[in-house]
UniProtKB/TrEMBL annotation:
<dbReference type="GO" id="GO:0000105">
    <property type="term" value="P:L-histidine biosynthetic process"/>
</dbReference>
<comment type="subunit">
    <text>Homodimer.</text>
</comment>
<dbReference type="InterPro" id="IPR005861">
    <property type="entry name" value="HisP_aminotrans"/>
</dbReference>
<protein>
    <recommendedName>
        <fullName>Histidinol-phosphate aminotransferase</fullName>
        <ecNumber>2.6.1.9</ecNumber>
    </recommendedName>
</protein>
<dbReference type="InterPro" id="IPR004839">
    <property type="entry name" value="Aminotransferase_I/II_large"/>
</dbReference>
<dbReference type="InterPro" id="IPR001917">
    <property type="entry name" value="Aminotrans_II_pyridoxalP_BS"/>
</dbReference>
<keyword id="KW-0663">Pyridoxal phosphate</keyword>
<feature type="modified residue" description="N6-(pyridoxal phosphate)lysine">
    <location>
        <position position="222"/>
    </location>
</feature>
<dbReference type="InterPro" id="IPR015421">
    <property type="entry name" value="PyrdxlP-dep_Trfase_major"/>
</dbReference>
<keyword id="KW-0028">Amino-acid biosynthesis</keyword>
<dbReference type="InterPro" id="IPR015422">
    <property type="entry name" value="PyrdxlP-dep_Trfase_small"/>
</dbReference>
<keyword id="KW-0368">Histidine biosynthesis</keyword>
<dbReference type="GO" id="GO:0030170">
    <property type="term" value="F:pyridoxal phosphate binding"/>
</dbReference>
<dbReference type="Pfam" id="PF00155">
    <property type="entry name" value="Aminotran_1_2"/>
</dbReference>
<dbReference type="InterPro" id="IPR050106">
    <property type="entry name" value="HistidinolP_aminotransfase"/>
</dbReference>
<keyword id="KW-0032">Aminotransferase</keyword>
<dbReference type="InterPro" id="IPR015424">
    <property type="entry name" value="PyrdxlP-dep_Trfase"/>
</dbReference>
Amino acid sequence: MRVKESMVGLTPYQPGKPIEEVKRELGLDEVIKLASNENPYGCSPRVEKAIQEAFKDIAVYPDGYARALREKTAEMLDVTEDQLIFGNGSDEVILILCRSVLTAEDNIVTATPTFPQYRHNAVIEGTEVREVPLTDGVHDLDAMLEAIDEHTKMVFVCNPNNPSGTYVNAKAFETFIEQVPEDVLVISDEAYFEYVSAEDYPDTLPLLKQFPNLLILRTFSKAYGLASLRVGYGVGHPDLIRAIDPGREPFNTNSMAQAAALSALDDEEFIQACHDKNKQEMKKYEDFCHNNGFAFYPSQANFILMNLNKPGGEIFDYLLSKGFITRNGEALGFPTSVRITLGTPEQNDKIITELTKWL
Ligand code: PMP
């Protein structure tokens, strides 16, 4: 058996070593993972009860259409229920989009570095990926516009961008989407939406009325703290959602995940508290960089990319020896940087102390 040509040479996503393995290898009692932008405060306490209740129906297939979660999410976003598509993480919404839309004759436009799954899924479809370098860590929307041609099917704007944490502001985004041809889909990936505090961050939901070629992606994996349950969603024009929905697995989000997400939506205080703590903790890393003369990208997300002027692998290994799994900048396109997901205040204090001692 041979896989199709476009799959040759691709490797699966490598999430890094499990915590238990790192503990064993390094002989450490405690290892903290600050590498995948999860919520260090967990999830809303309401989630546990919701999961327990959903557990009694575990022998039954879930509602593939996620009706209850759909209704609540639509109400919260002030959109209609037929504007939503739920996925096994927003990762799956990206996959559904790519398998539904892309062919080997097409291209997509993305920034680089950015979230790698846009590229990964497009490559599987045999589609050309046009990668436009960030300028000062931010999407170069003019250059991305220039990269669009008659074969372009989608443009991905990761906002805030992973791994830089930087954002495209409202004016820039609106000017951009106005110029994108109507038959090109603009994906605004807002995985870190709940952490954003910049006042000029785009309010994309109202733009859906004007731009049927806009698709917004959000997730329950980050601020909502449900990464392991895998729920994310897309919001777009009903015609677009209807067109891509057949590309979804029939039971793609499970009942416990749906129940958990539904209960998490009710706890606005939890999200607000996580937002506020993240912002406070971000200041510690910014101060560390300012005090030591290190460059960093101002981040609107729950992670920070810092240029510590040493090979990323060295920074990674040092932090690993102190019990912290972080993200090596070399693998992210920033060779002398490290990306750290903000942890609890104690974790952040410890990592900053270790870095200060070392550098
Ligand atoms: N988009 C971005 C920008 C991300 O960083 C991530 C997760 N790292 C995702 C999408 C996927 O998140 P999930 O599949 O857990 O919803």
